[in-house]
Amino acid sequence: MTAQSNQADAGPIFVVDDDAGIRELISETLTKLGYRVRTAANYEDALTGAHEERPGAMVIDVELPGPSGYDLFSKLREDFGDGFPVIFVSGVRTEAQDRVAGLLAGGDDFLTKPFDPDELAARIRVVLRRANSR
């Protein structure tokens, strides 16, 4: 089964980051692997997009303008339950306690910026595999 066929049932991977360059890097990386990707720059656009098409997974920057990535995560779990994996990313919150806080909040993984696109791809595969085996 290809990545794209897995995504057909699960919904797209949403990439939520206020940095256009990071959104583009993540989107290109995942698209090359066959995943469907949607992007948003802020809480409101991500929430609207998620209600238009339920995410299969999300990559969320912790530091968004306005409500934070953690706020978005909390609202999405309230609206959809915990049926899709979330990977937090941050270039500001990079200490061990920050990563632990993201995991304890319910995130499936936490990457600090800058990150290697191959590492992100591997982590996406792992969280999706885990989610699909539930």
Task: Give a written overview of the molecule.
With 134 residues, the protein is an alpha/beta fold. It has a single domain, classed as Response regulator (Rossmann fold). The chain contains 6 helices and 5 strands. The chain has helices at residues 3-10, 20-32, 43-52, 69-80, 96-104, 117-132, and strands at residues 13-16, 37-40, 57-61, 86-90, 109-112. A 5-stranded parallel beta sheet has the order 2-1-3-4-5, with helices on both faces. Strand 4, helix 5 (96-104) and strand 5 (109-112) form a beta-alpha-beta unit. It is globular, with a radius of gyration of 13 Å.
Number of domains: 1
CATH fold-type name: Rossmann fold
CATH architecture: 3-Layer(aba) Sandwich
**Beta-strand percentage?**
15-25%
Instruction: Compute the number of strand runs.
Output: 5
What's the overall geometry? globular
**Which value, in Å, is the CA radius of gyration?**
13 Å
Helix content: 40-55%
Q: Structural class given helices, strands, pairing?
A: alpha/beta
Average pLDDT over all residues:
87
The top level CATH class name: Alpha Beta
User: What is the ordering of alpha helices and beta strands?
Assistant: HEHEHEHEHEH
Largest sheet: 5 strands, parallel
CATH homologous superfamily annotation: Response regulator
Distance from N terminus to C terminus (CA atoms, Å) equals: 17 Å
Enumerate the spans where pLDDT stays under 50 for 5 or more consecutive residues.
Answer: 1-8
Total helical segments: 6
**Largest beta sheet: strand ordering:** 2-1-3-4-5
